[in-house]
Automatic annotation (TrEMBL):
The lineage of its organism: Eukaryota, Metazoa, Ecdysozoa, Arthropoda, Hexapoda. It comes from the Eukaryota. It comes from Euphydryas editha. It holds the Pfam family AMMECR1. InterPro entries: AMMECR1 (IPR023473), AMMECR1_dom_sf (IPR036071), AMMECR1_domain (IPR002733), AMMECR1_N (IPR027485). This is AMMECR1 domain-containing protein. Residues 26-220 form the AMMECR1 domain.
């Protein structure tokens, strides 16, 4: 990570959030998710991997929302970690926590290393507008994220979620998305039409912002 402009100089890290000013419309910001949130996630990860003190509190809103942080790597944008929470968290502490959790503690992957950071892209997803669906197809591809609850073949309650962009990125239709999500949630038996109809589905929308490592470095320099 030697190409990062601030290197190990904490002062530049601590002053790096002074340029953004939210522009409210009718008392509300135009959007919740802004690029500074991605830059903050990179700062948090950098400090963690280099055993530095955490970056100072950022200037963007600290309202509480459910959120996810996603790390991808390389030109192919291969998933490297994605963890979040459906419990509303204040964004400063929530992004600080999940930037690290998704990078280092996603059980599907080995922890991200220092050497991988220059090839990373990070996305912050702010989740809003939760609605209980009438049935398992009561949602729209590309618009809604979905969270399902179901009973496994062993009788235990399981849950799983996909953010709105997952199905379209994979080229799935609704049935393929549901079936993949059931497998993600640990369902191993044959997936039947009756099984799909038994699902309890919650749909939601996501405001997403992304930044590559190069965009992060350019913003910080």
């Amino acid at each position: 990570m030697s190409s990062v402009c601030f290197g190990t100089k904490k002062q530049k890290l601590n002053n790096s959030y002074s340029n953004h000013v939210e522009r409210p419309i009718n008392g509300y910001p135009e959007s919740v998710a802004i690029p500074d949130m991605c830059y903050f996630c990179f700062d948090v990860l950098y400090c963690q991997l280099h055993s530095m003190d955490p970056p100072q509190t950022p200037n963007f809103t600290n309202d509480a929302y459910p959120l996810f942080v996603t790390w991808k790597i390389g030109k192919e944008h291969r998933l490297r970690g994605c963890i979040g929470t459906f419990n509303a968290m204040h964004l400063h502490s929530g992004l600080r926590e999940y930037a690290i959790t998704s990078a280092l503690k996603d059980s599907r992957f080995t922890p991200i290393t220092r050497e991988e950071v220059p090839r990373l892209t990070v996305s912050v997803s702010i989740l809003q507008h939760f609605e209980e669906a009438e049935h398992y197809l009561d949602w729209k591809l590309g618009k809604h994220g979905i969270r399902i609850e179901f009973i496994s073949e062993r009788g235990s309650k399981r849950t799983a979620t996909y953010l709105p962009q997952v199905a379209t990125e994979q080229g799935w239709d609704q049935i393929q998305t549901i079936d993949s999500l059931l497998r993600k949630g640990g369902y191993k038996a044959a997936i039947t039409a009756d099984m799909r109809r038994s699902i309890k589905l919650t749909r939601y929308q996501s405001e997403e912002v992304s930044a590559s490592y190069n965009e992060y470095v350019n913003q910080r320099c």
